[in-house]
Design goal:
Blueprint lengths: L17 H10 L14 E5 L4 E5 L2 H10 L8 H4 L3 H4 L8 H11 L7 H21 L8 E4 H18 L6 H16 L21 H27 L6 H6 L12 H32 L1 H12 L13 H13 L6 E4 L4 E3 L2 E3 L4 E4 L1 H4 L20 H9 L14 H18 E5 L7 E3 L3 E3 L4 E6 L4
Parallel strand pairs: 2-7
Antiparallel strand pairs: 1-2, 3-11, 4-7, 5-6, 8-11, 9-10
Helix pairs in contact: 6-7, 6-16, 7-11, 8-9, 9-11, 11-13, 11-16, 12-13, 12-16, 13-16
C-alpha cells in the first residue's frame, strides 16, 4: 500500500546558534525549522537586530492579511534580496505605490478576461505534450526530469499569454535560459534582511546574481519596447501586455512608464512561471505515487478538445488534485510582513518594525487544524474539515487585498497541465529517486523530480 505521506523536509534537531541557523537557512529554509512549528500557534525568533514571529493562528493570520493589510506591509528586509530583478514591482511595493499598480494591473485579470488567454494557454500545453512525446520512441517508457519540463511549459504559457510569442522566440528563449541561471545564483536571504543597512551600502549580491538580473531586465525591456511600438502603430495583439500597457490609472489617468512595465513583467514571469512550474511538477509526482487519482485526472483530460474555455468546468477532480499539491508543496513557503506600530499578539508585545512570518508551508500542514495534514488526499476538500481549513488555513496565493492577481490564471493553468499530461502519458515513480523538497525561490526538489513517462495507448 502506498504511504499516504509524500516526502517532506527533515526537521532541525533542537536549538542551534544564530550562526548555525543562518547556515541551515541559506541551504534550505524549511529543514532549518524545528518540528514544533507544525503545532505552534506562534513562535518567536530573536536576532541582535530585530524580532520575527511566525504566526499560524488563523484569526491572527486573518488580522494581518484580511482585516488590516495596509498596517502590515511587505517586509522591506526580505524584499532586498529580490530587488535587483524585480525593481519596484507590485510584488515588492507597499502603500500608495502598490495601490496604484494594482489599479492598473487588476483589470487585465478580472472577470471573463481569463477566457481570452485560454487559447494561448492550450497552445503552450499542447506544445509541451508534443515535446515530451518526441523524447520517447513509440509506446516505450522514458525517464524524465519533470521540473525541467514544467519550467519550460510554464515559461511558454507566460510568453504566449503575455506577449503572444512562443518560448521558441529568440528573446523569450534567452530570457528563460538567463532566468534559470538567476535561480541558481540567487540566495534565499540577503545580508540586508538580517542587518539594518543604509540604502547606500552595497548589498553583497554575487556578480552572477547582478549580471543575470541585469540581463533579464534588458531582455524584458526589448519585449516591452517592441510592444510599445506595436501599440503606437495600432498592430499590437490584445494580450496581457497590451492590456496592461494601455490601461490608465482610473484615478490619475497615468499609464505605466517603460521602466515600471519592466518591473511588472519581471514579477509576472517570476510568479507566473516559477510558482506554476513548482506546483505542476509536484502534482505530477503525487499522481505518480497515487495511480488511482492519476487515472481519474487522465479521464477528465481525455475529454478536453480544442480551446473552448467552458471545458475547464469539467476538471473538478483535477482541480482538487492541484489544490492538494498547492497545500502540500506551496510554491512560496513563507511570506513576511512587518508591523507599523506596536501590536499585541497572544499576549506578546510586537514592537514597530517586527517581522511577521506567515508560513503557508506550516499553516497548510498544521497538526491542530487539518485532518491527516501530511497525507495526500484530494478528497479532503469536500469534507467539513477541508472546507473549514480552506477558509482559515489555506493561503498558497496569499489572501485579502494582496492576494496574487494571477491566482485564477494559475489554477486554470495547473489543472490544464495536469489533465493534458495525464491523458497522454502514464507517470510512475522511479525507484531510488524520491524527491527531497527544498525551498529557495520556491519549493523545488533538491535533485529534481524524476518520473517514468509511458504514452497511453490510443494517443
Amino acid at each position: 500500500m502506498t504511504d499516504p505521506r509524500p516526502p517532506m523536509p527533515k526537521h532541525r534537531a533542537g536549538k542551534v546558534s544564530l550562526r548555525e541557523y543562518m547556515r541551515l537557512f541559506r541551504r534550505d529554509l524549511l529543514s532549518a525549522q524545528p518540528a514544533k512549528l507544525y503545532r505552534a500557534w506562534m513562535a518567536e525568533f530573536k536576532t541582535p537586530f530585530f524580532r520575527s514571529y511566525m504566526v499560524n493562528q488563523p484569526d491572527l493570520v486573518k488580522t494581518v492579511l484580511h482585516d488590516r493589510p495596509m498596517e502590515f506591509p511587505k517586509s522591506t528586509r526580505v524584499n532586498e534580496g529580490l530587488r535587483p530583478l524585480l525593481g519596484d514591482s507590485v510584488f515588492l511595493t507597499n502603500g500608495a505605490a502598490w495601490e496604484r499598480q494594482r489599479r492598473i494591473i487588476d483589470p487585465a485579470f478580472e472577470g471573463g478576461k481569463l477566457r481570452e488567454t485560454y487559447p494561448a494557454m492550450v497552445a503552450a500545453v499542447d506544445a509541451a505534450v508534443a515535446r515530451l512525446k518526441a523524447q520517447g520512441p513509440g509506446v516505450e517508457a522514458v525517464e524524465v526530469e519533470v521540473e525541467e519540463i514544467a519550467s519550460f511549459a510554464a515559461a511558454d504559457i507566460i510568453f504566449r499569454t503575455l506577449f503572444s510569442i512562443p518560448i521558441d522566440d529568440e528573446i523569450a528563449s534567452e530570457t528563460f535560459r538567463e532566468f534559470r541561471k538567476y535561480q541558481r545564483s540567487q540566495p534565499v536571504v540577503n545580508i540586508a534582511a538580517l542587518i539594518p543597512l543604509p540604502r547606500w551600502v552595497p548589498r553583497g549580491f554575487s556578480r552572477d546574481t547582478k549580471e543575470s538580473a541585469a540581463k533579464i531586465r534588458g531582455l524584458i525591456k526589448r519585449l516591452t519596447d517592441r510592444r510599445a511600438a506595436q501599440i503606437a502603430a495600432g498592430t499590437a495583439p490584445l494580450d496581457l501586455a497590451t492590456k496592461i500597457m494601455t490601461t490608465p490609472d482610473p484615478e490619475t489617468g497615468d499609464l505605466f512608464t517603460p521602466d515600471e512595465m519592466v518591473d511588472q513583467v519581471a514579477i509576472f514571469f517570476l510568479a507566473g512561471h516559477e510558482t506554476s512550474a513548482s506546483t505542476f511538477a509536484w502534482g505530477l509526482y503525487l499522481l505518480a505515487r497515487f495511480p488511482d487519482w492519476q487515472d481519474r485526472v487522465a479521464a477528465e483530460g481525455a475529454g478536453l478538445a480544442g480551446d473552448d474555455f467552458a471545458q475547464v468546468r469539467r476538471l473538478a477532480t483535477t482541480r482538487d488534485v492541484f489544490r492538494e499539491a498547492l497545500r502540500l508543496y506551496p510554491p512560496v513557503p513563507m511570506m513576511v510582513r512587518q508591523t507599523t506600530q506596536t501590536e499585541s499578539f497572544r499576549d506578546r508585545v510586537l514592537k514597530r518594525g517586527a517581522q511577521i512570518v506567515l508560513s503557508p508551508w506550516h499553516l497548510h500542514r498544521h497538526e491542530r487544524l487539518w485532518d491527516r495534514p501530511h497525507d495526500f488526499d484530494p478528497g479532503r476538500w469536500h469534507t467539513d474539515n477541508g472546507k473549514q481549513c480552506q477558509r482559515d488555513a489555506f493561503i498558497p496565493f496569499s489572501a485579502g487585498r494582496r492576494v496574487c492577481v494571477g491566482a485564477g490564471f494559475a489554477t486554470v493553468e495547473g489543472a490544464l497541465l495536469l489533465a493534458k499530461f495525464c491523458s497522454e502519458f502514464r507517470f510512475d515513480t522511479v525507484p531510488g529517486r524520491t524527491p527531497e523538497p527544498v525551498a529557495h525561490l520556491t519549493v523545488r526538489a533538491k535533485d529534481g523530480i524524476w518520473l517514468k513517462a509511458t504514452p497511453r495507448t490510443g494517443n
